[in-house]
């Protein structure tokens, strides 16, 4: 996750307001004027008791827009709706229950351009996972070499080796376990080609729930905050929570300073998914 990633991400996001999707996903994207940023990425201040000799809490691997609820449709019923004549010829109801046709999990895929703004989260999850923070709770600061995948606005993908300095701690917040992960990322090619340090702080309280077929039932509960550079002019903030209805709510906001015809403007992206 870099300042340059944020800039490229902005150029690829579709700048239109909300659209309803069949999986009960609401996307809202809009430009930002000059807004303030809360600080983050520094040492966590907490009155909670620190817990040692425990395993960390997992983050999801992606942000999925596919509904976790079953449509109640078997593979045979889907086929009969798509092509009734072909369905009768194949007589799929005559296939054995243990046949591949009836046992292979049915997976649904959704391709929605508006969701590309959330691709950065998959890249962040992959990078954080490479630090093995779950296995180093309470071990203090350590260095991890991370192969970070950086998606460019032109559709290209680059993988850069980066030094990530990591500290993973567990806290007991009145019975709720919280995995606090702090990161200091050295980016050698920052704005103007100058090195910069990106400070990231992540709090994870609930790991994502997965279905039997490996799909995500929910996104878990977590918050990621990041500041770019010493001045902190750019920031990144993402959250996930599970609503009372069982739906997952994921928010994302990223801002940075852009030079527009000689005038510095704070611009960025905001997005929201509510996934049933």
Tell me about this structure.
This protein is of the alpha+beta class and 276 residues long. The chain folds into two domains: 3-67 and 112-275, no CATH class; 70-107, no CATH class. Helix content is 15%, strand content 36%. It contains five helices and eleven strands. It has helices at residues 3-12, 75-82, 84-90, 100-103, 119-130, and strands spanning 19-20, 26-27, 49-51, 142-151, 157-173, 176-187, 196-206, 221-228, 234-242, 248-260, 263-275. The strands form two sheets. Strands 3, 4, 5, 6, 7, 8, 9, 10 and 11 form a nine-stranded antiparallel β-sheet that branches. Strand 8 (221-228) and strand 9 (234-242) form a beta hairpin. Helix 2 (75-82) packs across helix 3 (84-90). Mean pLDDT is 74; it is low at 2-45 and 70-82.
In short, what is this structure?
The chain has helices spanning 3-12, 75-82, 84-90, 100-103, 119-130, and strands at 19-20, 26-27, 49-51, 142-151, 157-173, 176-187, 196-206, 221-228, 234-242, 248-260, 263-275.
The rounded Rg comes to 22 Å
Low-confidence stretches: 2-45, 70-82
- Which geometry do the CA atoms define? globular
Number of helices: 5
* Helix/strand structural class: alpha+beta
> What is the average per-residue confidence, as pLDDT, rounded to a whole number?
74
| Number of beta strands | 11
The tally of structural domains comes to 2
SSE string, helix = H, strand = E? HEEEHHHHEEEEEEEE
Largest sheet: 9 strands, antiparallel
Q: What percent of the residues sit in helical stretches (DSSP H or I)?
A: 10-25%
Quaternary state reads single chain
CA distance, first residue to last residue = 28 Å
Strand content: 35-45%
């Amino acid at each position: 996750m870099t300042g340059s990633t944020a800039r490229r991400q902005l150029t690829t996001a579709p700048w239109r307001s909300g659209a309803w999707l069949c999986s009960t996903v609401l996307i809202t994207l809009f430009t930002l004027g000059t807004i303030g940023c809360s600080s983050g990425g520094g040492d966590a201040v907490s009155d909670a008791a620190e817990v040692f000799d425990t395993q960390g809490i997992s983050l999801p691997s992606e942000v999925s827009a596919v509904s976790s609820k079953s449509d109640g449709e078997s593979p045979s019923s889907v086929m009969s709706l798509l092509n009734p004549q072909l369905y009768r010829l194949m007589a799929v109801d005559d296939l054995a229950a243990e046949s591949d046709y009836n046992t292979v999990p049915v997976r649904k895929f959704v391709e929605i351009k508006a969701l590309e703004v959330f691709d950065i989260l998959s890249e962040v999850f992959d990078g954080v996972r490479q630090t093995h923070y779950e296995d180093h709770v309470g071990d203090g600061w350590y260095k991890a070499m991370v192969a970070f995948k950086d998606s460019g606005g032109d559709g290209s993908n680059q993988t850069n080796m980066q030094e990530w300095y990591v500290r993973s701690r567990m806290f007991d917040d009145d019975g709720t376990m919280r995995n606090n992960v702090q990161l200091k990322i050295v980016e050698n090619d920052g704005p103007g080609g100058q090195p910069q340090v990106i400070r990231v702080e992540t709090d994870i309280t609930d790991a994502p729930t997965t279905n039997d077929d490996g799909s995500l039932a929910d996104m878990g509960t977590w918050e990621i905050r990041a500041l770019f550079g010493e001045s902190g002019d750019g920031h990144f903030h993402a959250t996930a929570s599970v609503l009372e209805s069982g739906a997952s709510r994921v928010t994302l906001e990223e801002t940075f300073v852009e030079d527009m015809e000689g005038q510095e403007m704070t611009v960025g992206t905001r997005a929201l998914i509510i996934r049933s």
